[in-house]
UniProtKB/TrEMBL annotation:
Species per Swiss-Prot/TrEMBL record: Comamonas serinivorans
Coiled coil stretches, renumbered: none
Alphabetical UniProt keywords: Signal
Keyword Signal tagged: yes
Protein's recorded name: DUF4197 domain-containing protein
Length: 244
């Protein structure tokens, strides 16, 4: 008969499962599920909460460092801010008439604005992390690939948008063609071809800046889950390692 410890990690459970299958043993699937759940249950609420806070703090800091440097958005195909797809035809026409440099100038300005704005969101993110509840923490630990994005989106989107908008506005106003964009986008929005929040460049870029930040935070979080030892935190290693 196979026995189990209430603190078995997922990796130990996988070995147990393979050993049982190889030996032709009849496994108790209810007991297996219970043992998997107990790996998380064995963590104290304080450990789970502190571990997730450490995970998100490290991931958010790394994301801001990556995106807040020159080329952080522009040179990252995952988050690079392009013109709204609904304006691609207009951009294509501009290129055909020899105005490709102006189109490139708008896109460079959009991404530069994002790179200048994103470092100003650090305290908004840290405030949300410090204020998270135990249920938030355990939801992130056991959630899927979007659990971190969902948490930050629900807690910080408004604050980040408020913080980023004036910085983006100041940067994009320096580009001569921004008014042309706003005129074109405003017309597209009136005909239902573009979302109203994307009808001016500052609003569009701010939204994309926030989305890109969440994307890279999630990327950093997944990397730490896969290799918790690299985090350099004994607590984080124990919390994440127990879920593998």
């Amino acid at each position: 008969m196979v026995t189990h410890s209430p603190t078995l990690s997922r990796r130990q459970l996988q070995r147990w499962l393979l050993a049982g299958a190889a030996g032709g043993l009849s496994l108790n699937w209810a007991a297996l599920a219970q043992a998997q759940a107990s790996a998380l249950a064995s963590l104290t609420n304080a450990d789970a909460s502190a571990g997730v806070k450490a995970l998100l703090t490290q991931g958010a800091g790394a994301a801001i460092d990556l995106l807040g440097q020159s080329g952080g958005y522009l040179n990252n195909p995952l988050v690079r801010i392009a013109l709204p797809s609904q304006l691609n035809q207009a951009a294509k026409l501009m290129r055909q008439f020899g105005l490709g440099a102006q189109v490139d100038g708008i896109e460079t300005a959009m991404n530069s604005a994002a790179e200048q704005a994103v470092p100003q969101g650090k305290d908004v993110l840290l405030g949300a992390i410090q204020g998270m509840s135990v249920s938030d923490a355990k939801g992130i630990l056991t959630g899927g690939d979007t659990s971190v994005t969902d948490f930050f989106s629900s807690k910080t989107r408004g604050g980040l948008t408020e913080r980023f908008t004036p910085i983006v506005q100041q940067t994009t106003n320096q580009v001569a063609l921004v008014q042309k964009y706003d005129q074109l986008a405003g017309t597209a929005a009136r005909y239902g071809l573009l979302r109203q929040q994307d009808a001016n460049l500052a609003g569009y870029v701010t939204g994309k800046t926030v989305d890109g930040l969440y994307t890279v935070i999630g990327q950093q979080e997944r990397a730490l889950r896969q290799d918790p030892v690299s985090a350099g935190s004994a607590l984080l290693t124990r919390v994440l390692g127990g879920l593998k």
